[in-house]
Amino acid sequence: MERERFEALVARAVNDLPPEFRDRLENVDIVVEDWPTPGQLRQVKLRHPGQLLGLYQGVPQAWRGRGYRMVLPDKISIFQRPVEAQCHSAEEIEVKIGEVVRHEIAHHFGTDEKTLQRIESERRRSR
Questions:
Q1: Beta-carbon contacts of residue 83 (< 8 Å; ≥ 6 apart)
Q2: Domain CATH code at residue 93
């Protein structure tokens, strides 16, 4: 998929967030990258770049105190090539992007990985 199309799908996923989340996105940059870097993989203790679809780097809103001012934006990276590798069609890519964007934004709001895995597992069971 061309980068512009992929980026448009990421933007749509952000725009499709419920307003109570979208309106509270503060000091966060959402970017598309081809692959995670070795440093990003080390950060999350993964070895293969195809395993990492997205990454939140920053200070979650739930942890920000009074001294949180004048700082660089947090960063959410969505990794295009790993997402594409896990999908078989443009429709699957769009669905996966939505899942990854929601997952990383949940980290931005302070939800930990264990909680997100439990929520996702419950969601799958309820289908």
A1: 6, 53, 93, 96, 97, 100
A2: 3.30.2010.20
